[in-house]
Amino acid sequence: MSQTLDQLPEGQAATILDVEGDDAVAVRLLEMGLTDGESIRSLGAAPLGDPLEFEVRGYRLSLRIVEARRVRIRS
Amino acid sequence: MPLTVAIIGNPNTGKSTLFNALTGLQARVGNFPGVTVEKKIGRIKGTADPIDLVDLPGTYSLSPRSLDEMVSVNVLLGRQADVGKVDAVVCILDASNLERNFYLACQVLDLGLPTVIVLNMFDVATTRGAKIDIAALSKKLGVQVVATSAHRKEGLDALKAAIAAAVPNGPGPRPHPFPETFYAECHQLASKLAELGRSDAPSFLVERALLDVGGYLETEWLAGSDIAEPWKSALVESRARLKEAGCRVPAVEAKARYAWAKQTLSDVATAPAARAETLSDRMDRVLTHRFAGLLIFVVLMIVVFQAIFSWAEPLMGLCESGQSAVSSFVASLLSPGTLRSLLTDGVVAGVGGVLVFLPQIGMLFFFIALLEDCGYLARAAFLMDKVMSKFGLNGKSFVPLMTSHACAIPGIMATRVIEDRKARLATILVAPLMSCSARLPVYTLFISLFVPDEPLMGMRGARQGLTLFAMYALGIVAAALVAAVLRKTIFHGETPPFVMELPAYKWPSPWIVVSRVWDRMMAFVARAGTLIFAAAIVVWAGSFFPGDHSQEFEKQRFIEQAEATQADSLKHRTMLEESLGKLNERMASHPPATESERDEFQEKLATIEGGLAVLNAELKPLDDARVEVNHLRASSVEQSFLGRLGHLIEPVVKPLGWDWKIGVGTLLSFPARELVVTNLGIIYGLGQDVDESNQQLWSTIREATWPDGRPVYGVPVALSIMVFFSLCAQCAATLMTIRRETNSWRWPLVTFTYMTLLAYFAALVTYQVAIRL
């Protein structure tokens, strides 16, 4: 089932399908290693609910919800 | 000719530490022309041939989206005139996070320059269980690979040797990560460019232009020339063909380079297998916890704020007393005159006005370096992003803005941590609206004079406290509104991404902290200090010329002679005044009960007062001269350029309830807001040693009248002055710091203009409303 990265529940992992768009946000997400086929795990949200924290390629990445929504995943 | 070597790397890889360790804190700091990027060049210590190291800003990739980001590419390609040809490049990677760091390394290797790959923080990676075969990796890449732990100064000699050997070794092979169709398109584009008359573009730029949709090389590189349009359409066509072939731009770059990284690292490096829960993870669970995390954050921020606000105070006091010591030393060497005034009120005051900021800058960067190095600063941004993003700022704006409540100068310097240019500029522009400690004397003076301390809801001083709070709140609300407006106007466009790495926690290294503090303090003195100094001299001249100071100097000479010859009498008088004070105090606390006690008291009183009368008569010429010299100074300030300007603007400040004296006081306090108190003292003929708790100043202000006899000051005027000072840009040092940090006069001008207008209209509304209540 395909969904977007902001919907990934805390503690769960998923596989990245692709990143939408070709603007600065998309490029930055790609540069940070969110390429298709890569596995990503949600580590939860900041105390105020946004941004979100993920583990990808062995490091921790913080994304705003609007940015995470650009990443399609398959869980 | 020294060799030029550029150093580049991801953020959080310890690049600055390595730079400082190699160059020994002897860097020349400046700006790249035309951009906000800091240029740091240092000579590497202890090499046979001289090698200059050029520090490039930390970045995740070499795809330029703005002129600022283009600087790194230009330097590396030898297209940056003020740096010249780069002979080699050092690419620094975080050894614990090789895969992601290899993305940039891949781009750097594509430049075709002699390259040294540095695996920094190697000790941390090893303890986390990473195994890296350096020799095999070096063989695979065809360039030298060196392991370092810069914070422990390990591996530096090997690195120096590698840098020295890099140029004779020549460049390594290019990674060639893309599918052949991509290179074919690049080839076509290069021929197209040559057709259009630009055969000088390196293949790296052509590749970048094709990859960066809407990037600098597509939109601005050839902008304005007649080949811009055909170039753009050639790019669009190329990308369409690539998409057909299954290589969608921009995704193809990340896919290709990450695949290359994985393949290169496959049999030479093993990351720690399943990530066991580290101490860092456990710490993070507390530090980003819904309640505990926020609580710890608040406590930490209070400590940082307290440090800048009060712990820096004794050091600032030291600067100030040093300044007055030097001032009186200079005064003792010269007789009163223009030169002495220039030296004491201009030069020494100007130097003091620069040095006085160092304690706060040092204190703030001590904490920032500490928090950044241990990994907490990124979490602070993570915690605060939601609040700050509502106003078009981002989580990293929080610390600079918070610390601006102590002083905007370190705050503005701290915006360097904000990578996004728009968010950084917006933060710089609103930082001076925060009520800094220089506004406090202004608030204190007018609140103690005009806000009644009668109890409110049973609390004494509550009205005064609330007024002070309102002044601080005013700054914050104004900053939020201005930031939101900026976001919609000059910084409009897409919201910048807030994609940020959260580095693992580690022990901060004292060496890093010390070098960061030193670095920032020196950068401030060298870069902003000169401009702040110049502003102080200009304002001194504006309040000194034109004018005939001969009478003033003559009186001053008389005073100094009299002070020398009558030193004993002066000392004696001070002593008697003190005993009189003590006697009266004792009388008040223990009123005499018996007749004899009363007589005894009367007798003592008579003796002291008799002695004082004699001394006062003796010292009368001196006292009169002191009063006179203060009046002469007041009138010479009134005659000066700035004084005349103050008269000229009286019609403008009258709607705020101000007379020309307040106007001149405000103009004269351009070097720093708190000077308005001193300047009012000078203008009212009380001399320059006046502070906000001076009783004489209080009564003069209470008694000041318009020519028709109405009092000048009242609650409405006090409020209008406070509101004006809370929002105005009367701080040359801040504006000069903005000039230096943004490398352009545009932003200090914008800041000064909008803040002055905002302050004026807010004060106008305050006054006009307050007099009608």
**Content-based structural category of chain A:** alpha+beta
Largest sheet, spatial ordering of strands of chain B: 2-3-4-1-5-6-8
**Strand element count of chain B:** 10
Query: What's the end-to-end separation of chain A, in Å?
Result: 7 Å
Widest sheet of chain A: strand order?
A: 1-6-2-3-4-5
Count the DSSP helices of chain A.
2
| Terminal CA distance of chain B | 74 Å
Largest sheet of chain B: 7 strands, mixed
- Classify the helix fraction of chain A into a percent range: 10-25%
Greatest contact pair? A-B, 37 and 47 residues
* Oligomeric grouping of the chains: heterodimer
Number of E-type strands of chain A:
6
Number of helices of chain B: 34
Principal-axis shape of chain B equals elongated
Percent range for β-strand residues of chain B: 5-15%
What key attributes describe this structure?
heterodimer, A: 75 residues, alpha+beta, globular, B: 773 residues, mainly alpha, two-stranded antiparallel ribbon, 34 helices, 10 strands, elongated
In short:
The complex is a heterodimer of chains A (75) and B (773). By secondary structure, chain A is α+β, with helices and mostly antiparallel strands.
Produce the secondary structure layout.
The complex is a heterodimer of chains A (75) and B (773).
Chain A: E1 2-4, E2 13-19, H1 24-31, E3 39-45, E4 52-56, E5 59-63, H2 65-68, E6 71-74
Antiparallel strand pairs in A: 1-6, 2-3, 2-6, 3-4, 4-5
Chain B: E1 3-9, H1 15-23, E2 28-31, E3 38-43, E4 51-55, H2 67-76, E5 88-94, H3 98-109, E6 115-120, H4 122-127, E7 131-132, H5 134-141, E8 144-147, H6 156-169, H7 180-195, H8 203-211, H9 216-219, H10 228-244, H11 251-265, E9 269-270, H12 279-287, H13 292-311, H14 313-333, H15 338-355, H16 358-374, H17 376-389, H18 398-403, H19 408-414, H20 421-430, H21 440-450, H22 462-488, E10 500-501, H23 510-544, H24 550-565, H25 567-589, H26 595-639, H27 641-648, H28 650-653, H29 660-668, H30 675-683, H31 695-703, H32 715-727, H33 732-742, H34 746-772
Parallel strand pairs in B: 1-4, 1-5, 5-6, 6-8
Antiparallel strand pairs in B: 2-3, 3-4, 7-9
Helix pairs in contact in B: 3-11, 7-8, 7-10, 13-16, 14-15, 15-23, 16-19, 16-23, 19-33, 20-22, 21-22, 21-32, 22-32, 23-33, 24-26, 25-26, 26-27, 27-29, 29-30, 32-34, 33-34
